[in-house]
Each structure stands twice: as C-alpha cells, then as structure tokens.
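Expect chain and fold; thus:
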Amino acid sequence: IHLGITLWRVFIGFFLGGISGLMLGLAMGWSRSLRMVIDPLIAAAHPVPKIAILPLIMILFGIGESSKIVVIAVATFFPMLINTVAGVRQINPIHFEVAENYGASLNKIFTRVIMPGSLPLVLTGARLALNMALLVAIAVELVSAQEGLGAMIWLAWQTFRTEELYVSLFVTAALGMILNFLLQRMTLYLVPWQTEQKI
C-alpha cells in the first residue's frame, strides 16, 4: 500500500509538472522574446529547495494530497522546462529555413521540425524530472504524510525497526532503477536515430 501511494503521487505530480514544463519549454525555445522575459524568473525560482516551499503550498492548497502533489509537480517542472528549451534551441536553423522555403505552416514546423528535433533532450528532461519526482515525493512523505515510502522510512527510524528501514530504502532504490530503465527503453523506441557513441 505504501508503494502504491508513493507511485500515485509521483506519477500525478510528474504528469502535471512535466506537461507544464514541456509546453512552456517549447514556447520559450521557439520564441526569443518570451525566453528573454521568463528566463530571469526561472533562474530565480529554480535554485529554491522545493521542500522548503511546502509550508507555503500547504497554506494555499491545504494539508491534504493536493499540497504534496503540487510540490512534486513544481520539482518536475524545472528539469523538463530547461531541457525542452535546450532541445529546441539546439535544432539547426537550416531545418527551419528549409521548412519555410517549402511553405510549411507553423503547425507543420512544430510537428515535423521542433518536436522530432527536440525529442532527445525532452526525454532526458523527462528522466531527470521523474527522478526528481521520486526524490521529492519521499522527502514530502518524510515530513507530512502518514502513508507512502517516505512515511514508512520515518516510522521505521522512529521505532528502531531497522529491517523495515532497510526494506524501504531497498524498495525506493529498486523503484528508481525500474523507472529509469523504462524511460531508457522508451528513448530507444522513440529516438531510434540517436545511438550511443562507442568509445
């Protein structure tokens, strides 16, 4: 039950923060003026520890599940945003010029140039965001939850049940490995043209 609750929080927060970061990142990567306006705000907000804003979020969203999910979503938003912006900006301008010369509409440029060109870094951002979601979910559960892997770790530590503590840590590590493996397989499937360089 603890594992299921943590996974639910991770995936809901990852979905909300990841989609928001993806959409804004694509827009910022495409629009220089938008990037110039929002970049300073991102630079100021990104270094703030996300667990530190939990009390403020609890005031705004209450002490229930909403505040926990919002913190996780905020934590996943930034890696997704930053990698998406970088993914769009690293696309060679020649691709845009060729698309425009062939009369491609804005919709075609977005679906045929921007999305495929930025996908490798977008997926890297998704991997970082998912790891961050798991990390913050455990941290939030440690301080403000009765259920979840983080709450289980805290209870085991308080009651000196070392076997449960080690099991909780092992499950958390295994969960991280499984999630990363699944994202790696997804990357190989969605970006088959990007092969690892052999040294």
